[in-house]
Design goal:
Elements lengths: L1 E5 L7 H16 L3 E5 L21 H8 L3 E7 L7 H9 L10 E7 L7 H13 L3 E2 L4 E3 L2 H4 L9 H22 L2
Parallel strand pairs: 1-2, 1-3, 3-4, 4-5, 4-6
Helix pairs in contact: 1-6
């Protein structure tokens, strides 16, 4: 089972569209998939007391990370970095065991020309600190407003092929790490 994290809580975001595309592509490859949509984080998670004791409503999110063979995070670039809610989500995961040894891949997107490069690179540092195994083949989706349509399809066949190849490679990476 793979977990896809839609890295923002912005309603009706391009990030969620791309996350659904990643989910469907993994399903086509034959992988099981669970989705974490940060817009569905429980409100009580944002109480200061959650740092000490996580609310029980956060358990399904935590379990999705624990049970994942690999985690694919779809990362939008906001103001030259990744969204604060994504960092908060990672902060709320049990430390250190949630990401230790967990394979991790990244898909960046932005309205600019670099497709979330800065956001992905910064997030990779957080995942490295948490001792995840980073998959080196990242996908960047620039000018996302014209690249993804309302149904979440990519308008560029070459970009879609790059995404499919990267996800196929990530599944293989995870299999190698698990000894399959």
């Amino acid at each position: 089972m793979f977990t896809v994290i839609a890295g923002t809580n912005r309603p009706l975001s391009n990030t969620l569209k791309v996350s659904r595309l990643v989910e469907n592509t993994l399903l086509e490859i034959g992988a099981g998939v669970s989705m974490i949509d940060l817009s569905r984080l429980p409100e009580e998670l944002f109480a200061p007391s959650s740092y000490a004791t996580k609310p029980s409503s956060f358990r399904p999110f935590q379990e999705a990370v624990f049970e994942a063979e690999g985690v694919v995070t779809v990362v939008p670039e906001y103001n030259g970095s990744f969204p604060g809610v994504l960092k908060y989500f990672i902060d709320m995961l049990q430390f250190p065991e949630s990401l230790v040894g967990k394979p991790a891949a990244f898909v960046g997107l932005s309205s600019g020309r670099w497709g979330g490069l800065r956001a992905v690179e910064q997030l990779e540092m957080v995942f490295q600190y948490r001792q995840a195994h980073l998959y080196g083949r990242r996908v960047f989706l620039p000018d996302i407003g014209s690249l993804v349509d309302e149904q979440g399809r990519l308008s560029d066949a070459a970009t879609m092929s790059r995404l499919e190849n990267a996800l196929q490679g990530f599944v293989g990476f995870c299999n190698c790490l698990s000894g399959e």
